[in-house]
Write a structure and sequence with these properties.
Helices cover about 20% and strands about 30% of the residues. By secondary structure, it is α+β, with helices and mostly antiparallel strands. The protein has four domains: about 10-55; about 65-145 and about 195-205, no CATH class; about 150-190, no CATH class; about 205-238, no CATH class. α3 (about 150-165) runs antiparallel to α4 (about 175-185). The structure holds zinc ion.
C-alpha cells in the first residue's frame, strides 16, 4: 500500500480531481486508513479519502508544469523554495512592461518569511524563451496593516495638541474638534499601506553550462539546472 508524504499532490482516481494531502488517519473498525485531502484551489474544504482511491501525481523532471507546480504554490498549498524581498518600484516596472511575465488569473497567496499566515497577492509568472515556465514569479503582496488617517488630519491634531499645551489662550475645544474630525474619516478615505514585492522561485537554479567555445561563438549557450534538471539554454543568435 502506497504512503504519501504530507502535503503532496494526489489524484483522486474515481473523480480525477487533483487534491493535496493534509493528514494521515489510521484505520478504524468502520473505515480503512486514508488521508484528509483538500482541493488545490480550496484548502478550506477537507475530506477523508481511503488510500487506495489516491495516486501520487508524478512530476516530470526538468519541466515546470502549470497544474502540478504553479497552481498549488499560487494557491498556497505547496511552498516555493525561495521567497526573496525585492524592490517594489522595479517589480512594478517589470510587470508593467509585460516583458516575459504573465499574470496568474486568480488571487494568489504568499506566506512571507517569518509570517505565520498567508497574505493576498497578485503574482506574475516568468516565461521561458521556449514558451514554458521558469518557475519564478513576481509577487505583489497586499499589505493591510492598519489603515492610517490622512496625514493632514493627523497634523491638525498634533498642532492642536501642541497649542493646547503651550498657549494659555487656546480653547480646549479646538483639540477635541481636531480629534473628532480625524476619527470621522471613513475607512475608504484612509491612507492605504503600500504593497510589498517578492521574487518567488520553485527552484533556485544551479546552472551547469555545457556550451563549447564553438557553440558560444554561434550564440548558443546550452545549460541545465543540476537540481531540477530544467533546460536553461539560451539562444542569443539572431
Ligand atoms: Zn533548478
Amino acid at each position: 500500500m502506497m504512503e504519501f508524504t504530507v502535503p503532496q499532490l494526489v489524484r483522486h482516481k474515481p473523480s480525477g480531481n487533483v487534491l493535496v494531502t493534509r493528514r494521515y488517519y489510521e484505520a478504524t473498525q468502520s473505515r480503512g486508513a486514508g488521508y484528509s485531502c483538500s482541493p488545490v484551489k480550496n484548502s478550506n474544504t477537507t475530506r477523508g479519502y481511503p488510500i487506495d482511491e489516491l495516486e501520487a501525481m508524478v512530476r516530470k523532471r526538468g519541466v515546470i508544469d502549470y497544474d502540478l507546480d504553479i497552481v498549488p504554490r499560487a494557491q498556497g498549498v505547496l511552498n516555493w523554495e525561495v521567497i526573496e524581498p525585492v524592490d517594489l518600484a522595479l517589480t512594478l516596472s517589470n510587470v508593467a512592461a509585460c516583458a516575459g511575465w504573465t499574470a496568474y488569473p486568480e488571487i494568489a497567496w504568499v506566506q512571507k518569511p517569518g509570517d505565520n499566515r498567508k497574505s493576498w497577492a497578485r503574482i506574475f509568472l516568468h516565461g521561458t524563451q521556449w514558451g514554458g515556465w521558469t518557475g519564478q514569479a513576481h509577487a505583489i503582496v497586499y499589505e493591510g496593516g492598519q489603515s492610517k488617517y490622512p496625514s493632514h488630519l493627523r497634523d491638525a491634531v498634533v498642532d492642536a495638541a501642541v497649542r493646547a499645551v503651550h498657549k494659555r489662550s487656546e480653547p480646549a475645544g479646538n483639540l477635541a474638534a481636531a480629534v473628532l474630525d480625524m476619527e470621522a474619516t471613513k475607512y475608504y478615505q484612509r491612507e492605504a499601506a503600500m504593497p510589498s514585492a517578492w521574487l518567488l522561485s520553485i527552484c533556485k537554479h544551479e546552472v551547469v553550462d555545457t556550451g563549447t567555445a564553438d557553440s558560444k561563438m554561434r550564440g548558443w549557450h546550452p545549460a541545465h539546472c543540476s537540481k531540477c534538471g530544467m533546460n536553461l539554454s539560451v539562444d542569443s543568435s539572431d
